[in-house]
Amino acid sequence: MKVMVISADHAVAYAAKLARTEVVPSFPITPQTLIVEQLAEFINDGELDADFIPADSEHSVMSMAVGASAGGVRVFTATSSQGLALMHEMLYAVPQSRLPIVMANVNRSLGAASGIWVEYNDSMAERDSGWLQVYVEDNQEALDATLMAFRLAEDRRVLLPVMVCLDGFILSHTVERVDLPEQEEVDRFLPKFVPYNMLDPSDPKLMNPIVPPEYAMEMRYQLDRAVEHSREVIAEVDELFAREFGRSYGGLIDTYRLEDAEYAMLTLGTATGLARQVVDELRSEGKKAGLIKLRFMRPFPFKELCAACRDLKALGVFDRSASFNGGGPVYTEVAAALCNVPTTVTGHVAGIGGRDITPEHMREMYDIVEKASRGEKVRPVTWHGLRGDME
Amino acid sequence: MYEVRFHGRGGQGAVMAAQALAEAAVIEGRHAQAFPYFGAERRGAPVMAFARIDDRKISIKSQVYEPDLLVVLDESLLDIEPVARGLKKDGKAVINTRKLPTEIDLGVEVECATVPATSIAMEFLKAPIVNTAILGAVVRMCDLVSMESMQQAIANRFGEKFGETAAKANAAAAAAAHAQAAIGRCKGRRPLAQKKEWLPAWNEIPIGTTLDERIVDGVTVGPGGARQNLTGSWRVQTPRYDKEKCVRCQRCWFSCPEGCIKREEDEYVRWDLNYCKGCGICAQVCPVKAIDMIKGGSR
Known about the structure:
The complex is a heterodimer of chains A (391) and B (299). Chain A has 13 helices and 16 strands. Chain A has 391 residues and is an alpha/beta fold. In chain A, helix 8 (183-189) crosses helix 9 (213-245). In chain A, 54% of the residues are buried. Chain B has 299 residues and is α/β, with parallel strands linked by helices. Chain B folds into 3 domains: 2-185, 3-Layer(aba) Sandwich (Pyruvate-ferredoxin Oxidoreductase, domain 3), CATH 3.40.920; 196-228, no CATH class; 231-295, 2-Layer Sandwich (Alpha-Beta Plaits). Chain B contains 8 helices and 14 strands. Strand 9 (205-207) of chain A pairs antiparallel with strand 8 (210-212) of chain B.
């Protein structure tokens, strides 16, 4: 193990290198650029034996990724925001073809209201594509989640692409301590890639042809079940990872000081780290506050959330993107998951377009959820840090 | 509610026929709908179209499973598709054929009109687009709409799209078919054609729908599936090649949608008639008229 002080972008690039990625189709976009630049350097310096393919657009990147993965090699790429949107069409080809491509998406707001800073409206828009999505809290998790993504994607029970989502700038351009695993450890954790769905001219196959209505429904249900069954494998991979590297992330969700909590926030991405600190403050004041960290948006942890919220009076759900007139996407999905649980659910939108989320904002969220837990009437959805009174 | 199902091949105009029938009913102040069902657009492939007519607004949008009237635009479909499936016992059928109703075994014995719509279409339209001719026979068979309304509907739909001359030719084809249709009862002796289909349950489809070549339930799936689908059986006209005239420009080879024109080593061409569906594009693009289409699907 080597201790480094690197950005999350570089941590992801190291993970792709340690995973012995074989093809990297790429197109640069801020704040993802550091990932593909670093990979280009690894390849140029002979540290990684892979093909680096500069593409003319992200649409081409994902097309190349599909071709390379169907050709039987381990593929990694990275994108962000408008780049992910441009990939949209090709993203849908991957899960239905069951190709285990791993991609980092450095979250950035999707314009208009264009900006280069973090917002989750880029990746949330792709949650119905069939890609598994994991959101990370810090640079170490960015590296670890990328390594786990390969193992998860390539598991024969899964065979699905995984999108590792990390906050633009807040992680991508922040350096912090990262423990870099040894190559031998990673090789033990992640065996050599053995393709399942492979196109080989000497053994002709037809992959995902155009189908009439007689077939599409069964194909979609097969994908629905594959995403559902990935839940078990996520838990297994987390345990395997803990055994090899000594770090565990809890699988689909993680909890913090939830055991005897009466109210809690559910967060994803870097807001989780802030929420941990606020929970500690509230606990020191004698308040029974807790935290649920949402790691996977797909598969969505319906059962795990119901179990975690069983004794909660109220749960606030943090969103770093809006669905417009209905709160954020995480809020609506959590509310649907908890429809048979008596927990009151409130929505909390913050940090839009990269606006900094302060400890005061997080404290404000917890205060509203505490009121809801006492049965007080509160807004269903609150925007925090908004100038002007909410309607 | 009166329900109609059309069976034809891509390019014969089944969809336009269903639409014109619906429009004729609307001209008479009734409610009607018409809609197609076909796969990736392909001339010659089996297609269906549906029409419904009622005195009230029609709310249903499902396909027609128990038609009152069956219209078959291509006789060859009787051998490969269960076209008469669900046809009501007191239903009616209109079939494009040179045969008399008593010579036709539809699999269900019903009142039937037969009409040589392909010959009529070739005469009036110079193309085997049989939809308007068959509509003339439909009017003759059922008192669903009047011939005046049908002629008006044909003029409206075809005039708008192809001009007045085309509208008149199509109306004339309908009138000729109305006059020439033979009425009788068809036979219902043979079992309906069994279509070989592979209909796997969700967990029987290979992961990622990645298929290797194999035969499942009698159907070839994966690479090589086209081997079983001899599109040459769709042909009602066949290219005739005059090698003397051929200038070896390869336009026919380039334009053939089935890829069934082969270039010989000397750059002359030949047709793989197992797959030539007789669309006539090669004859159309030939700059020296070295190719013409002759009647019939034989070799």
